[in-house]
C-alpha cells in the first residue's frame, strides 16, 4: 500500500518490516495499516517482538527491511511528534527522592514537543488537570513522582501521553502494575 499525504484516513502504514537482534529474527515481513479511529492490539508471548514493532514505528529502532509511513510521510522524515503519544512499558524504578511532581512530569510533554508556545500557561494547566482526572490522579498532582506506587506512576505516564490530545496513541502494556478497578476504567 502506497500512501500519499492526501490519504487522511491512514495514520500509520507498516510495510514489509523485518528486524533482527543479532542472528535472531524477531519480526519478518510485517505489513498492516492503521486507519483513523482504529484500535489495534498486538498480542503475543514475552519476547515475540511487540515492543520492538512499536519502537520501529516510533523511529526508536531501525528495521532491517521495510518502511513505515506516519500520517503520509516516511517515518524518517516525520517530525510532528507532538501528534503521537507513547507510554512505554512500566518504568521499573524511579528514585523516591527525584524532585519532580506529578504535575511537572505531565507538563514535560509540553516542553518536549513545543516548537513555540502553542498554548497559554492557563490552557496548559487545564490540559494537565483534565489528563490527570482522566486517569484518576488529580489528587496527587503535587506529590513527588517517586513517592507513588508503580501503578500510580504508570497512570501518570498515561496522563503525560494524552495531555496533548495526540492523533495517535501507543500504549505498551499500559495497565501493567495498575489495579483491576483502574484497568476496567481505562478500557472504558
From TrEMBL:
**UniProt keyword list:** ATP-binding, Nucleotide-binding, Transport
A GO term for molecular function = ATP hydrolysis activity
For this protein, the record's CDD domains field holds: ABC_Metallic_Cations
Q: Which InterPro entries match?
A: AAA+_ATPase (IPR003593), ABC_transporter-like_ATP-bd (IPR003439), ABC_transporter-like_CS (IPR017871), Metal_Ion_Import_ABC (IPR050153), P-loop_NTPase (IPR027417)
Q: Where is the ABC transporter domain?
A: 12-187
Family affiliation: Belongs to the ABC transporter superfamily.
In Swiss-Prot or TrEMBL terms, this protein is called ABC transporter domain-containing protein
Amino acid at each position: 500500500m502506497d500512501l500519499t499525504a492526501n490519504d487522511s484516513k491512514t495514520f500509520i502504514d507498516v510495510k514489509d518490516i523485518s528486524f533482527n537482534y543479532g542472528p535472531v529474527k524477531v519480526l519478518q515481513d510485517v505489513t498492516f495499516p492503521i486507519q483513523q479511529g482504529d484500535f489495534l492490539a498486538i498480542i503475543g508471548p514475552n519476547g515475540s517482538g511487540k515492543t520492538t514493532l512499536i519502537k520501529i514505528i516510533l523511529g526508536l529502532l531501525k528495521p532491517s527491511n521495510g518502511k513505515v509511513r506516519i500520517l503520509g510521510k516516511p517515518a524518517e522524515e516525520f517530525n510532528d511528534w507532538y501528534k503521537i503519544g507513547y507510554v512505554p512499558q512500566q518504568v521499573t524504578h524511579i528514585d523516591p527522592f527525584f524532585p519532580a511532581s506529578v504535575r511537572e512530569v505531565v507538563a514535560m510533554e509540553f516542553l518536549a514537543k513545543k516548537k513555540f508556545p502553542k498554548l497559554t500557561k492557563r490552557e496548559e494547566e487545564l490540559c494537565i488537570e483534565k489528563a490527570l482526572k482522566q486517569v484518576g490522579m488529580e489528587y496527587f498532582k503535587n506529590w513527588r513522582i517517586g513517592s507513588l506506587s508503580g501503578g500510580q506512576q504508570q497512570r501518570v505516564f498515561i496522563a503525560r501521553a494524552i495531555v496533548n490530545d495526540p492523533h495517535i496513541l501507543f500504549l505498551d502494556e499500559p495497565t501493567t502494575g495498575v489495579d483491576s478497578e483502574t484497568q476496567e476504567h481505562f478500557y472504558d
